[in-house]
Write a structure and sequence with these properties.
Blueprint (H helix, E strand, L loop, with lengths): L5 E8 L7 H13 L3 E9 L10 H8 L5 E4 L5 H11 L2 E4 H12 L3 H25 L18 H19 L2 H11 L3 E7 L5 H12 L14 E6 L2 E6 L10 H10 L1 H5 L2 E7 L4 H17 L6 E6 L6 H10 L8 E2 L8 H11 L4 E8 L2 H13 L1 E6 L3 E8 L1 H8 L6 E2 L9
Bound molecules: guanosine-5'-diphosphate (GDP) and magnesium ion.
Length: about 425
C-alpha cells in the first residue's frame, strides 16, 4: 500500500551543542508518516554552510542514493533551497515542508484544509519573492517539488491568502456540527494522541485490524484515518492523528491545531508514549502532551498508554512507570508491535468511556413509530421489544445519543434508567 516515494534525510548538528539523535529519529518518523521510504540518513557536525546548509560533499553523497527527495532537518533559507536544487538537480524540502505535507494529507475538515493551505502559502511567499528577485523564473522544475513559479506568483499568493482568511471566518463553527453528526451515528470518539514515533499508527492498525466491523464504510468520508472498532460489547470510532510535534514555527501552529480537531472532539484520548525513551525525555514529552491537550481545549478523560514495553526489561518498565506516575496514572502497558497488553487497554477504554445506560422507550405502534424503532437500532443495542398498544423498547446505549435519535417524533418517551425487566 505504501507508495514508492524515496528520500534521504540530512541533518546538520550544531558543533556547539550536544548530539541530538532523537531529532533524526523524529525526522524519520515524520518522513514515514508522509509516505516516504527512507533510504539513508546522513548527519554532519559542522557550522552552517551559507549556500548549502551542509557540506557539498555530504549532499553529493545523499544524491548518490538517487532519492526522489532530500529532506533536511534544519530549516533551509529560500536561497539554500534554490542553490541545492540547482546545483544537484534534485528536489529538496525541509522539516517544515514535510510537516506541511503531512498536515495536507491528514486535513479532514474544511477548516483544516484552509489552515494548511494558508500555512503553505505564508511559508512559500518569501521563497517565491526570492526567486522572482533572482529573475530565474522558468526552468526550475525541481524547486520545492512544486513546479515553476512565474512573475506574478507572489502577488497571486498574497491575494489567495486574503481570500482564505475570509473563508476561514465563515467555516469556523462547522466543527461542532461534524462532531454532532458522528454522535448521531451512535459512536463514542476515541482519539490517539502522542508524539511522532510513539507508536500511534501501529496501535491504530492493531486495534482496527483485530476488530474491524462491517460498519466500517461510512466513516471513510469523515476522515481517512477513522475506523469503527467493536471491542467487548463497546463500539467506538478510533482516530489516528498526526499527533504532537515540537519546535513548530508560528506559521504552522494554526494548521497544527486544526489537525488536532479529532482530539478536541474526542470522548476519550489515548495518550501514547514510548516507554523506551530516556526518562527525562519521557517526562518532558508527557508534560507537554498534557499542556497541548489542555491548550487546545481537550478536556476528555485520558488513558495513558505506555508503549514499546518489548524494548525494555519489565523491572525498568515499572521503575519508569513509577517515575511518571503523576503524569500517567493508572496506565496501560502495551507493545503495539507485538500485540501485548491490548486486552487490558481495551478494558481501560471501556471503563473510561461515558457509561452505557439501560432504559425504556415507549413508541407509538404506528408506521412512524416503527421508523423510529429502526433508527434506535442503529444507535443503541436493543435488549427487548414488546409490541402492544404501544411499543415498549428496552435499550442499552448512551442516553444523549438515544434522545437525539428520538427527536422530532410525535410521542417519544424516554423513561429514566431502570433495572432490566424481570425474566
Ligand atoms: N519495538 C517496538 N517498536 C514499535 C512498537 N510500536 C511501534 N513501534 C515502532 O515505532 C516506530 C513508530 O511507530 P508509528 O506507529 O509509526 O508511530 P506514530 O508516529 O506515533 O504513528 C515504527 O518503526 C514502529 O514499528 C512497539 O510496541 N515495540
Ligand atoms: Mg503515525
Amino acid at each position: 500500500m505504501k507508495s514508492e516515494k524515496t528520500a534521504v534525510l540530512l541533518f546538520r548538528e550544531d558543533p556547539r551543542e550536544e548530539s541530538h539523535p532523537e531529532k533524526m529519529a523524529e525526522l524519520r518518523g515524520l518522513a514515514e508518516s508522509a509516505g516516504y521510504k527512507v533510504i539513508a540518513e546522513i548527519s554532519q557536525r559542522r557550522g552552517r554552510d551559507r549556500r548549502f546548509q551542509l557540506g557539498k560533499g555530504k549532499i553529493a553523497e545523499a544524491v548518490s542514493y538517487e532519492p526522489e527527495k532530500l529532506i533536511f532537518q534544519n530549516p533551509l533559507s529560500p536561497g539554500q533551497m534554490f542553490n541545492i536544487s540547482k546545483e544537484f538537480e534534485v528536489q529538496v524540502i525541509d522539516r517544515f515542508n514535510l510537516i506541511l505535507e503531512i498536515f495536507a494529507s491528514r486535513a479532514s475538515t474544511r477548516e483544516a484544509k484552509l489552515q494548511v493551505e494558508l500555512a503553505r502559502l505564508s511559508y512559500e511567499a518569501p521563497f517565491v519573492r526570492t526567486i522572482e528577485s533572482l529573475k530565474k523564473l522558468s526552468e526550475r522544475p525541481g524547486y520545492m517539488g512544486s513546479g515553476s513559479y512565474d512573475v506574478s506568483m507572489y502577488r497571486d499568493i498574497k491575494g489567495r491568502m486574503v481570500k482564505i482568511r475570509a473563508e476561514l471566518k465563515a467555516v469556523e463553527e462547522t466543527g461542532e456540527r461534524r462532531r454532532e453528526r458522528r454522535r448521531e451515528l451512535g459512536f463514542d470518539l476515541v482519539a490517539l494522541a502522542g508524539y511522532t514515533n510513539a507508536g500511534k499508527s501501529t496501535l491504530f492498525n492493531r486495534l482496527t485490524e483485530e476488530t474491524v466491523t462491517a460498519k466500517d464504510q461510512p466513516f471513510t468520508t469523515l476522515s481517512p484515518t477513522t475506523r469503527a472498532v467493536a471491542a467487548k460489547e463497546r463500539r467506538f470510532l478510533l482516530t489516528d492523528t498526526v499527533g504532537f510535534i515540537d519546535d513548530l514555527p508560528l506559521f504552522l501552529i494554526k494548521a497544527f491545531r486544526s489537525t488536532l480537531a479529532e482530539i478536541v472532539e474526542a470522548d476519550l484520548v489515548l495518550l501514547v508514549v514510548d516507554l523506551s525513551d530516556p526518562p527525562e525525555i519521557l517526562r518532558d514529552k508527557l508534560a507537554s502532551c498534557h499542556q497541548t491537550l489542555w491548550d487546545c481545549g481537550c478536556y476528555a478523560p485520558i488513558v495513558s498508554v505506555l508503549n514499546k514495553v518489548d524494548r525494555i526489561d519489565p523491572e525498568v518498565a515499572l521503575e519508569r512507570c513509577e517515575l511518571i506516575r503523576d503524569l500517567a496514572p493508572n496506565p496501560a502497558f502495551i507493545s503495539a508491535r507485538e500485540g501485548h497488553g491490548l486486552d487490558g487497554l481495551v478494558d481501560l477504554i471501556t471503563e473510561k468511556l461515558p457509561p452505557l445506560e439501560e432504559f425504556k422507550v415507549l413508541l407509538p405502534s404506528s408506521e412512524a413509530g416503527m421508523g423510529q424503532l429502526s433508527r434506535l437500532y442503529e444507535v443503541a443495542e436493543p435488549i427487548e421489544v414488546k409490541y402492544g398498544e404501544e411499543t415498549e423498547v428496552l435499550l442499552r446505549g448512551r442516553r444523549e445519543i438515544v434522545a437525539r435519535a428520538l427527536k422530532g417524533t410525535e410521542r417519544p418517551e424516554l423513561l429514566p434508567p431502570q433495572p432490566l425487566a424481570e425474566g
